[in-house]
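Page header: ASSEMBLY MODEL / two components / 528 residues total.
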Amino acid sequence: MKMGTMKQLLLLTDGCSNTGEDPVMMAAFARQRGITVNVIGIVDSSGGDPGLDEIQAIAKAGGGESRIVQAASLSETVVNVTRQAMTGTIYSIINEELRGILNKDATVESLPPATRSEIAEKVEDISEEAALELLILTDMSASMKLKLPAVKEALYDLSVSMQSRIGPSSFSLWTFPGKYSAAEERIGWTNHASSLAESFPQLVSGGITPTGPAIRQALSSFIEMDEYDEKSI
Amino acid sequence: MKNQYDAKPGDLIKGKWTGHVWRIEREIGRGANGVVYLVTGAVGRAALKFADSASVASETNALTALERVRGTSPGPFFIEADDLEKKETVYPFFLMEFIDGPMLHTFIKGKKEEWAIILLIWLLAFLESLHRLGYVMGDLKPENFIVTNKKKIRAVDVGGITKFGRSIKEYTMLYDRAAWQAGTRKAEPAYDLFGAAVLTVALVHKEAVQKALGHTDELGEIVQSSPVLQPIAPVLCNAFESKYDSASDMKKELLLCFTKKNTRAGSRKRKKSSSGKWVMLAGALAAILMLFLLH
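Prediction written out in full:
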């Protein structure tokens, strides 16, 4: 099995979206385009409501993983979510193939354990060797201010893990809300993951959280400009 | 973890594929990706782990890969993998040999701190046999190892076991080379040797190591100022800098350092004990002062 480039959008946020299109719809659109959307909700020790339902709904529609974590354990979570989403993508392709061969309810779980182990070995090979394009979309609304150092550290950590893989990885960093639009590209596609953490912005912007529009804009980065047409969405 | 099956002592687990029945005795471990129970079945005692289907499959592969040497394995022997079906939900699990004994941190409790060095020697022997098979341990937390009554260390969790050249599958920050900003997360012997060195220091000075996380220079200071670890400081510091390519090289130098220490021990000990007395006295004085201030 040959695998194309795996495309992932990782959304880091600490609250509910409060303006613009529905982020769940945008995540479903991303998935249609072969881009997996993962969401990590960051809470502070005092609790706070990261909008659990919305976070789960976005990840579900985007075919990815969701987690709610405290800032302190963000690093491990970011790496785990990215890895699991990669194997998840491969498994969902395998499940689809199985449904074609067996029946419409078939999944890897309907195969005997020995066969599953063989599949797991292949899945590991593929996720280790496949090319990865990972776009990180970070919420920079005022409430994120104290969490930004943890985000920066997590991005450094993520870059170390991804660069230890055999396959090539490229990264891009977007933040929202932007000064003049819903989201802004901070670092364009690069193979030098360390630049992600190094030039991570430390200034938060306004109070609104336009999660939906931000996902839409960030997606433009994956989809080539000539086929990208905002009106078609 | 989603879809976690919670079993109670006395529950019977019947495998969908083999029909084998296992009786739950007690829970023996719980991690981020699964729960392990001690069970009894037709073949006797075993360890049963519930996890998601992908983890079961990949840990099965890791366990069988470690058995390539006939008759021994650095990890538990693999028995079989199966599914439990309850109310239309599938709970995958697998069975492995139950390895009895204390975990590293429980083993050292109540013993002299010097045992940490003995544990490191045993741990390096374990890593030597694992690396020979082309795999690294990855997750070097003390809970993942058991000291057997044969004076050997064996792994009880193989979730982090990774083929050479790949990126480490599972790790714990405190023992992770990348978290200390001391190198990559690529699976190579030096990655495990770094973790083994940190593990040794953490067995003796857990809190100090946790505080130092991210700064290897502070890790070096902890070692230098530790009466227990100072004699093997050169070996630990080399491991922090990924200077060893193999566990056997590190073990050789460690044994050399360790024996050298014993010949010089006399003079150093006298000095240490007198300074120790002064520290005790100062501590007692401080405590009395504190009591006065509080009143």
